[in-house]
Amino acid sequence: MAEYTLVEYDEETYRPGEPTDEQNPERMPEDVAETLWKEASKQVEVELPSIQTGGKIKLKNRGYAGRVKLPGGHSVVLEPKVQVERVLRLLRYAEGLESFEFLDRLYAADTIDKFYDAVVEELASGVIKRQRKGLYQEYVDRKEKSEVVRGKIDFREASKKPWEPELPIEYTELTPDIEDNQILLWTLFVARSSGIASDDVKGKVRRAYQSLAGMVSLEQYRASDCLGRDYQRLNKGYERLHVLCHIILSQSGPVRGSGANQMVPWAVDMETLYERVVANWLDDRLEDPLSVESQEEVEIGDSGREFEVDLVFYRDGEPIAVADTKYKVPEKPSTSDISQVISYAKTRGVERACLIYPERLEEPINTDVNGVRIETLKFGLAGELGDEGSDFLTEMRLPMLVS
């Protein structure tokens, strides 16, 4: 068993074979690398041994923070370049969870693993307590065939097969098998499948899952299904549990089937996180007549295709600039990134385009290209978000665009 650490965007090379040092392995079993390639290629770029790799295994973190469990007790730790505590607070901001004060103690974790443990344990404990208190139930309309009549008979359906002893009936039933509880069960299933939680937490997850499984159907849900739900007096306590479900599901990989050996990576996509943080912060701070739209779809002429622009800035409802967030920090912007953001500007009919990075580039640009002013700007993550954002606005000179 071994633990392999990959810092985001850094590349590591291993020789095929069993590790010789669990703390700092120089080798990796080839079947482990192959599983990583098959099941977690979104998080980790994997090159299996070949002539091109010199017979070695090459791994590269694609910009994630988290952990991927692998067969035989092996695991890959995906480490961020910024402090874990900072990542988690940015995650809270990006997901719009600032108002949930009970999350504060969860964000005191100093590693991704401890944070995951804290969130999963909080959910499992909450489900167990809710089970003891009594699950929220709703009246649900049911249809089935039965020899015992309850509710009303669907005579139209029954007349089609009058020889059958079982009659089609319709009735209303008070049941806990509803979305509020199905979301809890699905999230516990995903957490259990990840294999990331510590042994103590795994036991609690197992008890919570079993307490629900006999009464609630296992249905698949998305992270977005957990927020924006309606709560009233009887199910108010579910809001807190659904927030925890959202945190777990929003960073979890897809679940393939329901086999015993499935692997569900849990990792924060730092590129998406950065994009959301910048967009949300600007949306919160900009005031009339300025505004910003994120992930705006723009048609490309008559081609039937669309651009998805990270940020479009408006003044009095008219576009004035476009921007693309880039979490990676190269020495200078790539030609393709420059071409892309210029295309965005041309399509939106604006004369200003920006590439936004979390750090200052060694070779920044600020120049005119085909009638578009393009420049590289910094929206940092190292300091307080308010200060970093204010510095960005000053550098972008947005207040000057009002006049």
Question: Can you tell me about this structure?
Answer:
This protein is an alpha+beta fold and 403 residues long. It folds into four domains: 3-79, no CATH class; 84-136 and 177-268, no CATH class; 138-175, no CATH class; 286-401, Trna Endonuclease, Chain: A, domain 1. It contains ten helices and 17 strands. It has helices spanning 30-39, 84-94, 112-133, 155-158, 179-194, 199-213, 238-250, 270-285, 335-348, 385-396; strands at 3-7, 11-16, 27-28, 44-47, 57-61, 64-69, 75-79, 138-146, 152-153, 167-175, 266-269, 290-299, 306-315, 318-325, 352-357, 366-369, 372-378. The strands form four sheets. A six-stranded mixed sheet has the order 12-13-14-15-17-16, sandwiched between helices. A four-stranded mixed sheet has the order 1-7-6-11. Strands 3-2-5-4 form a four-stranded mixed sheet, with helices on one face. Strand 13 (306-315) and strand 14 (318-325) form a beta hairpin. The chain is globular, with a radius of gyration of 26 Å.
Summed over residues and divided by their number, the pLDDT gives a mean of 85
Question: Distance between termini?
Answer: 63 Å
Residues in helices, as a percent range: 25-40%
SSE string: EEEHEEEEHHEEHEHHHEHEEEHEEEH
Total domains:
4
Within the largest sheet, what's the order of strands?
Answer: 12-13-14-15-17-16
Globular, elongated, flat, extended or rod-shaped: what is the shape? globular
Structural class: alpha+beta
What's the helix count? 10
Beta-strand content bin? 25-35%
Low-confidence stretches: 257-261
Total strand segments: 17
Task: Summarize the biggest pleated sheet.
Answer: 6 strands, mixed
Radius of gyration: 26 Å
